Amino acid sequence: MHRLVYFSNVSLDLNLFAIEAMVEQAAEKNRPLQISGALHYNGLNFLHVLEGPHQTLTPLYLRIRKDPRHSGVVKLSHERISTRSYPDWGMRLFCGAPKCVAASGEKAPREGDLPAMIDAFFGFGQATASTEP
Ligand SMILES: Cc1cc2nc3c(=O)[nH]c(=O)nc-3n(C[C@H](O)[C@H](O)[C@H](O)COP(=O)(O)O)c2cc1C
C-alpha cells in the first residue's frame, strides 16, 4: 500500500460546482481500483492525498498530472504505508475556501497526524485566499 501527496494550482476557470462533479466522478473510478483519499481545496490550490496499491496509484497520478484543470503539480511525498488515513472513501472533497466553509460548516477529520497536518497547511492557504478582493 502506498500514499502519494501532491500540491497544485487550480485552473482559474474551475468553479466549485465543477470541482464537486470532478470529485464525484473520481470517487466512482477510484473505488474499484482500491484507491481512497481526499482532495483538499482552499480556493487557489489542491492538496491531494491518494492511497492505494502501487500498481494503480502511479498510473492514476501520471494521468492526473496531465489534467488541464490544474497546473504546477508538485509531488510532496510518495511512501509505503501500512494503514490508510482515509479508509472509507473513493475520494472526498474537503473545501477550506471561505466560500464553502461558510456554506457547509464542514471540517476535515481531526484524528491521526495526516489530516491535522493538512489542516495546518491549508490554514495558510485560507489566509491567502481571504485577502483576495
Ligand atoms: C485535482 C484533480 C484530481 C483528480 N483526481 C482523480 C482521482 O482521484 N481519480 C480519477 O480517476 N481521476 C481523477 N482526476 C481526473 C483525471 O485527471 C482524469 O480526467 C480521469 O482519470 C479520467 O481519465 P480518462 O479520461 O483517461 O479515463 C482528477 C483530476 C484533477 C484535476
Structural notes for this entry:
Helices cover 39% and strands 29% of the residues. The longest helix is centred in the last third of the chain and has 18 residues, at 113-130. Mean pLDDT is 82; it is low at 124-133. It has one domain (2-130): Alpha-Beta Plaits (2-Layer Sandwich), CATH 3.30.70. The chain is built from four helices and five strands, in the order E-H-E-E-H-E-E-H-H. The protein has helices at residues 16-30, 54-65, 98-104, 113-130, and strands at 2-10, 36-41, 45-52, 70-80, 92-95. Strand 2 and strand 3 form a beta hairpin. The protein has a five-stranded mixed beta sheet, sandwiched between helices. The chain is of the alpha+beta class and 133 residues long. Bound molecules: flavin mononucleotide (FMN). Residues 22, 26, 29-30, 39, 46, 48, 60, 63-64, 67, 69-70, 91 line the site of flavin mononucleotide.
